[in-house]
Amino acid sequence: PKLQTALHTPQPQQPQPHNIEQIEALTKQEVSMSSTMEHPLLLPKLQTALTCLYSDSSSPQNRHEAHEFLLTYKSSNVRRMIMSRKQSQKDRVPSSDVNQHDHQPVVGEENAGSIFLSCLALILQASGSHERIFAAQTLNHRCRSIKLVETLDIEAEDGVECGVARLVAAWDEIKGERAQLLLLSGGGGGAEPNSNAALGEKSKMILTAWLERYVPMLVHRCGGDGSNHAGSVRNGTFCNGAELLTLVLQRHSSSLLNNTNDADDSEGQEAQIKGTLILLTLAVAMYVSAFVDYEEEHHFHQTQQQNQAVRSPWANAVLSELGSALSITALRIRYRPLKDKNDTPTPEPSCLPLIDMLVNALSAVKESAQVYFSQKMQLQNNDYTAQTTAIHQAHQYAIKRSIAACIKSLPETVLLPPGQENTGHRIPSVDRACLRAASMELRSVGSSNHENDVGTGMDKAWKVLLESEDMGNQEQKDASASRLLACCEAWARYVAVPIPVIEVTVGSLAVEYLHVTRKSSGCYSQQDEQKAQMAAFQYLVSIFESASPSLTAEDILTAALGVGAGAHRNKGSGGSSGKKNSQTKNKKGKSKKRHEKRLGRAIAVQDNSQDGGSADAAEKELMARRNSACVAAAAVFGVSLTDASIKGNDWGLRLAASSPTTSTHGICSTVASAATSVLPHLLFLERGDGDGESSQKWRLELFSGIMAVICRMCASPSRDIRALAYEPLMILHTSLNSVAAVSLRMEQVAVDAICECVLALATSCGYPAGYFDCLTENNDEELEVERNDIRDVARSVCSLDSGDFGIHGQISPSMLILERTVSACNTAVQGSASTGRLPPETVVHVLSALAKPLNKLGKMYKEHPSAFGCSIMTMTMVALGNVFDQLNSSFDSRSIAEILPLSRLALMGAASLTPMFSSLAEVALGPAASDAEKEMFATLKRTFLSSLQHSMLSTARIPELLAESTLQSTRYDIKGAMRGPGGEDHVGCIALMRLSHESEHMTNMVFEVCGSSILHDLSSLYQGLKKSELERGFGRDYGTGVCPISRRIILKVISRLALYEMKANDQASEGRAILHELLQGPLSEMRSQKESPLTAEKLFKVCESAFDLSFFSEELVADLFNNPSDDLGVMFDCVITGYSGLSFTSDPDDMCQQWGRLRGGAHSVLRASMKEAITDYSANIISALIKAECKAATLQCNQGPESGSNFFNDSIVGEDMVHAGVYIMLIKDSLDRIAKKKSLVEKDMNECRMCLLVLKNVAPVIMPLILHQSPEANAHVDPRTTIAEAWFLTVGSLVSICQSHEQIAASLVADGVESFFGESLSVAMALIFLKDLGTKKTSPPAIQKGMSLDGPHTRAMLESFVSESMLLGPSITSAGGASILSSIQVDDTCGQNNTGLYILIAALYRSVSGALPPWAVEETPSLFKSMYATMCSDCDEFVQLLSVSTKLKATVAFGGVRAGELLGGRYLDVSRIHIESFLSKSKEVCDKGDWKKIKVALKATCGGKKKDAGFNLKPQFTSWDCERL
Hints:
Blueprint: H1 2-7, H2 21-27, H3 43-54, H4 60-75, H5 78-92, H6 115-124, H7 129-145, H8 148-151, H9 160-184, H10 193-221, H11 241-252, H12 266-302, H13 314-334, H14 354-378, H15 384-414, H16 432-442, H17 458-468, H18 477-492, H19 499-514, H20 526-545, H21 553-560, H22 578-609, H23 614-636, H24 665-685, H25 697-714, H26 719-723, H27 726-738, H28 744-764, H29 781-797, H30 813-835, H31 841-849, H32 851-863, H33 867-888, H34 896-912, H35 914-923, H36 931-957, H37 987-997, H38 1000-1010, H39 1013-1032, H40 1044-1064, H41 1070-1088, H42 1096-1110, H43 1114-1122, H44 1126-1138, H45 1150-1169, H46 1176-1198, H47 1224-1235, H48 1242-1266, H49 1279-1300, H50 1302-1309, H51 1313-1329, H52 1352-1366, H53 1370-1381, H54 1395-1411, H55 1420-1430, H56 1435-1445, H57 1472-1488, H58 1493-1501
């Protein structure tokens, strides 16, 4: 094997101690060992490899070899290897020749040696901790992964041929004879009894011989040969594992053969015998490990004063692994898979339940150990009494630890966790039907009505644990409690804990350690006490989490029936594109369907094998889990279930979060877990209950007790503790709205508590005193994250997505919470006004967070007005208006540090509440229905006016940035940034835009409350901001005023309001004069720069003017281009002239930076002018810009891939600015705008013709650039990729219009649209021929001709253009073929009629053969389907086309195609049979119309999918946004 070869490779380094060469020497030893060998064959190799792996002195190479050896060792299965190879020989060799091949070994003797025996010996010999752990892990892995007959591989100690192969041959012989008998009897099972008896006797003889040979060997090679004196202490431990194993097997091995069940099932007999031996040997290993752990712990405490080293907790890992191995072995013995995989197996006859089987194995070891120590003590000469006490304590400890480890590992190994995805839970390699049967067994509990009725599940486990522990021993009480609670916690994660067990484990045991005011006893067992307390918390959390509100009956069914670890829930992945999301959903949808199908089969099988439905059982278990959680919560919060009395104010967790000592993470996370699962269930239990049922008062008491702690957690000074309360609050709110008719008493408690929690959270996350003293510092990121989280909590608990809005007199809890929260905020704001102080920042923070529910309320109010909703919105506007009024009057009396945080929050709130304002403004158009509504409308106008005033004041008086922004390097900007969290614009400007742009009603209200003077005020504001910007100077955007884009937002507001006024007053208005004045600003600036030399400052001023123009209304900009002036020409001349400054050596300077920004500015202006139509002026400018850019790109490509560039880099013409090809996208935008129209007019046709003419005009410079053979650039940004992407996207849009509107397509024929599409198609295919695929003898070159095709341009080419253009008809493919034929010369074997079309098909072959990235293969079905449609869906002609294209060869080299080479690529250079197979499958695809299958055929023909070719994943299209430049 490969790993063995690597293991035996000689090492050039100097030999290291314990190096891998010792393993090689051991491997070369003879297999035939003497009968006196005292160790397993593989043990020295294993020890050497482990020592080498963990030794600090080993070289890395030796460690690697040791690691490879151990991997092979762990997974080796000699018996299965022999059986597999023998079967392969039978399949290859005729039956008549089988005998002559029998002498040939099927597996080499280098595989000799028992893995099970060597691991067992390693554990029993009390070696190092890493050796013990590895051995235990290996044993567990093998027990979980392979059959019992293969796990206990002790016969391998006799060698492969003499041991394993001989045993396999013996069983094969019996199996053959039994099959022969069955055949002679006609297959009816009626063979003669004597023959069956003879075979049974023969099987018994083999098993007897096996036991006689290998049980002594098992004892002997583990060291239990009696060579050591019985009374000696070996390896520092009084318990010699080998000697104990000897005694155990002497006492129990004689009965192994008598316990086998079916004499006709030889494999079953062997499995039962070996399984029992595994149980006994692993039980001994567990006992010995626990015994040694006790001795080491005792010795450690005795020497702790002298030695401060930490003891390795190896025993925990070893016992856990061995417990898991025991559990899975017991399962394999008790349940054997049936032939029908859908049937649930029944337990094997005479096999005890799983828990009893484990306990019996450990009891056998316990009894043997008592005999062993009794015999051993009799040989001791020293103090008998002292040693007897020590041994007895170690013995008791070992038994308790072993039982606890087994009981704890059983559910973790056999059961599946319900409702949890990606838990990492390892499912053993056991038949799922067996797992299902074991799951049903471990879920079975006795009746709670009968004390002695104990099932086979957790109640049985608890009884066994309680009997094994001595809870009356005060010294060991904490240790016993720790073990008991840890075991219960493991069970609680998988099954419903019975309430009687809850009452004992939580009510009596765990609660002792959960008193938050409990003081430690200070005794020697303080460490055990801490472990017990931690186990108690973990146990409670598991109980609560197992009753999670998100858990469903289907989740429990899925786990209980062994179908999987949990339900398949779709979870969205952020940041993905829509198409990627849809692909992910499709995959998850298919997985969900498969899961549902498996679950349905499992339910049907289970329902047939038991009384009652599985679904009902799952529902009952779900209810049992939630009831158990409530009982556990009542126990730890001291609430009596009988009379609702409180056991004490300091009981359990009642005082949690009341002081620093009671606010630990363990305590508070337990309370949060309880609240998450218990509170929703209490609400469920309370539905419809009256207030007079005294027997159910405990629910309200428990609910109140838990919520009291949650409220204290919300007010905690610790941020981490407060965060624990978020989830319980949101889940409680969801449950409160989903449960119908909950009792009023509990609803009132819940609503009051949620309101209190929200306000406490808001108060706790306020900015600390002095936080804004230095506004140039960065914000506290953790504080800002918490504030955002609390906004989410407040928004969630007030959410109006469900429930009644008070329409029918029933008010939902959400409405009540919203009303009380708003009322509290309003009260706080009014209170501050009366004292002359600014409102509390935390109050405004909460108020601004409620925008989403308030907007929903406003929308609902339009359709269903209600007094309650009217009251809430009125209070909201009163509070917000008062905040603005106080801020407006404070600018002259308070510092910016005081005003800024409050102003920022208030403006964010106003901007967020504009949908509510808009709804109310629409309602206000009609008459008021009541005095309250009349007051609400008046309040709306007052608040609206105050918000407008403050928006303008804050924009004028508070700089957007008081110092340089750090947003590029930090998540949150400096404290002195007048922006939203993570935002980039002044919140005053945003508020103005939202208040004026939300709807026509809002625009109208601006003039209603402010009059036309608002335009003059805004114009003055804009001029002032522009002046501040000029005073700041070139390149500086902080200190005074706002950033340019925020100033332009004001410009957008003015344009909106001015145009509205102009339409309302028939064009004769002040708005026209103001707009004209503002428009002259950027035009005059451009005019002033016309004659000045080209400098960075000139480009900056022209660029700023360009962006200013782009923010005017689209109607104004379009009108400007309809009547162009020389002023606009300055901008475009600067861009075109700038391309002449291309340099291949210099780095970008300030002038390059400003020119790069100007490219984006010119694009923005052009885009704004073309929102309605493209003009002749715009078309000419776009053509000139595209040509200038493509000529510069061609010059750059001429310099080669290694050339530098001052333009084509990320900071100028790249990702940081805007990519090359951006002007081509303007044509696409126009085409897309036309395509969206439902009906087209003559104007639209003319516009399409103009777009086509622009494309044809620039095609002579774009197409050669796309096909430029310069390799992929690595020293500059390759402009060809984004230009190609823009080109194919734009041409694809034109194709789409021609497909959708035949009238336009017909009108464009005269303008040469068909030849244009054909040329573009030929360019796309010629790109594919640029790639060299290599030959059969040589690999493709690392450097390829032409640009890389692994990018969005290839996706645009295939998706948007190639497949769609071919659907326009044969004329397009004919034009494309004719065009490409002018570039590529081929042989004349195919004739001249359709040669161009053949070349196009050959290009598609080449694309799949590796010319295009692997993700492009997904587009091949649509490409070939389009080509088939082009052939008028003629199947024979299409197949003929495919056939001829496979033979096509180039006569002259072109791109990556050599002369004489197949155009389709080297993978088509195969036998004709291979090609005919592909053609046959293609014909079948055509006949059936299943085009997805052609992808499979193509991949098989063209060399498969090229996964390791260095390509990327499917790319997203490029972003062409320019506004932020």
